[in-house]
Amino acid sequence: MSAVLPPGLDAAGFAAAMRAFAGVVGSEYALVTEADLIPYHDAYGFDSLDNHHPGGAVAPADVPELQAVLRIANERGVPLWPISRGKNYGYGGAAPRMSGSVVLDLGRMRRIIEVDAVHGVALVEPGVSFFDLHEHLQRENIPFWASVPGNSLGSVLGNALEYGLGYGPTGDRANNLAGLEVVLPNGELIRTGTGAMAGSSCWNLFPYSYGPSWDRMFMQSNFGVVTKAGIWLYPEPEELLTLDIELPNETDIGWLIEALAPLRMQGVLQGRIYASNFMRVVMGSGRRSEWASDNRAIPDERHPEIMEEFGLGWWGIGLNFYGAPALNLARAKVVKDVFARYTTQPFRTSIWQRGDPRPNSPAHGVPISFPLRLGNWVSPNGGHLGFSPVLPPDRAAVEQQISRSRELFRQHDFDFYGAVTLGERHVNVVNMLAYDRGDADMTRRAEALFRALMADAKSRGYGEYRSHLSFMDDVAATYDFNGGSMHRLNEWMKDAIDPNGILAPGKQGIWPRRFREARA
Ligand code: ADP
Predict the structure, then answer these.
(1) pTM of the predicted model, to two decimals?
(2) Going by C-beta distance under 8 Å and a sequence separation of 6 or more, which residues neighbour residue 392?
(3) In the chain, how long is the greatest CA-to-CA distance?
């Protein structure tokens, strides 16, 4: 039996609930032993496993089984924590926010229900990984590419619900999701958007609704379990032209954003616009022991030598242009002309043409998982945390954020991996903290660094767009306009839609009444 019970249940009550789940899904899919629950721990956890210890796990095979599981959970007061594939590394993996929650593993619901090969939409279930979708498109010769992220082991649907960002023109996943099927906490099945019409022919084509659009309400929330989603794909381009450039100075990030932001707004740029510092590559190399003999940061003085060895600048960026060669050429020229005002660094140009073998590169829609090596940077028993504030796409704001982050990393003695993704009218800055889970001093420093970064960002009006389980309450508290009125709306909504408080208590700081009052 699991070491941790859900709050409010005694051992006998919990065992009875797990037996009832097993009656629905089969005993091999209702798990409670410590050994069976290991995959549901946060593999990258920096604090005690007890903080996010699953009480059990249950894996329904389809929507009727899921509805039966929800009914039992409501009757018996069992908190459930839905996951799609549970590969949300850096943010908590498969583990629940509240210890004792039963992980609702949707990985068995893994069908690619259909791909509309004319309009470029895949209708997928939660368990479909980026690898699954890519392989399906290849096997069926469907002339569309899926946007994939650096960790393609995760699910297409779960990643989109978390506002995940991937490569390619459809990489802003939340904006390339149209039409959800959701089971509400009370077991009711709904379809959002025009899917609310029985026999709708545009469910996954039109992103809005007649009346309010509810799709966003089910993203980063605990208001429902998403069981299907329409994902937009990108038509296989005639050509993909890539311009890579390395920039030597830490401060180059400022002008880079100044140069790129207007081009992005004008529609000159396509795909994911993602600049990262040299540490992204270096931290994936597995070679830390060549420059460090302890769990302290590699000294700054050694950076030039490392950059030279890897052939990298302080910042690197690859810009990808997808489509007709004439358009790509014209777009690339506009970019080069703008860059010429700021730098003499050369671009490296590469061209992929339809019919060429696809390189093992996410920009070409090919799933990868090797960036996960980052987790082992400091130790084989390693992990990482992502700190990801949202900023305006302004030169000074980004330059200063990087400089302040760097200083805080220095103070807490961590290697600095920074990356900036340029959105339509914002940037996401991702700061990666990699640590040795077995080094108590280092994990304490990681937590202190995270808190320092969070306080610094808040003091400038920058909020995080996503966070690890352990910081969900803290990040939610930074959204404090009018005494936290948005948070009150979330919790009011939570109590209305999930009166028994069974679904993902505490996700994004949203607690149902029964746990909220117990915590107060
Ligand atoms: P991945 O699919 O990348 O492995 P997860 O399955 O860990 O990611 O999902 C990340 C988070 O998104 C989960 O912790 C959960 O809060 C939420 N989530 C994932 N799938 C669903 C779903 N089908 N319905 C509701 N929330 C979900």
Answers:
(1) 0.96
(2) 425, 426, 427
(3) 71
Compute the distance from residue 117 Cα to the ligand 1 centre, in Å.
27
Q: Is the CB of 158 under 6 A from ligand 1?
A: yes
User: What pLDDT score does 2 carry?
Assistant: 61
Ligand 1: which atom is nearest the Cα of residue 224? 25
β-bridge partners, 348: 244
CA proximity to 81, closest of 151, 1, 4, 173: 4
Task: Give residue 449's Cα distance to chain centre.
Answer: 21
- Residues 223-252 have a mean pLDDT of 98
Minimum-distance ligand 1 atom for the alpha carbon of 227: 23
69: nearest Cα among 125, 19, 15:
19
Contacts of 514 (CB under 8 A, 6+ apart): 8, 77, 500, 501
Residue ranges of E strands in 248-314: 274-277
Calpha distance 475→480 (Å, rounded): 10
Q: If DSSP states are collapsed to H, E and C, what string results for 19-45?
A: HHHHHHHCHHHEECCHHHHHHHCCCCC
- pLDDT over 90 at 127, yes or no: yes
For the annotated catalytic residues, the residue numbers are 91, 465-466
Report H helices in 26-143.
34-37, 63-76, 130-139
**How confident is the model over 364-381, as a mean pLDDT?**
93
**How many whole angstroms separate alpha carbon 458 and alpha carbon 460?**
5
Ligand 1 lined by 106 (C-beta under 6 Å): yes
The string of pLDDT tens digits covering residues 448-501 is 999 999 999 999 999 999 999 999 999 999 999 999 999 999 999 999 999 999
- Cβ burial 235-270 (10 Å sphere, 16+ → b, else e): ebbebbbbbebbbeebebbbbbbbbbbebbeeebbb
Would you give the end-to-end CA distance of the chain in angstroms? 30
> Phi, psi at residue 331, to the nearest 5°?
-65, -45
Question: Residue range 224-238: average pLDDT?
Answer: 98
Exposure pattern of 160-192 as b/e (b: 16+ CB <10 Å)? bbbbbbbbbbbbbbbebbbbbbbbbbbbeeebb
Mean of pLDDT values over 300-323 = 97
In sequence order, which residues have a C-beta less than 8 Å from that of residue 48 and are 6 or more positions away? none
Residue 307: DSSP 8-state:
H
Positive or negative: CA dihedral 33, 34, 39, 40? positive
pLDDT digits (tens, 9 = 90+) for 182-213: 999 999 999 999 999 999 999 999 999 999 99
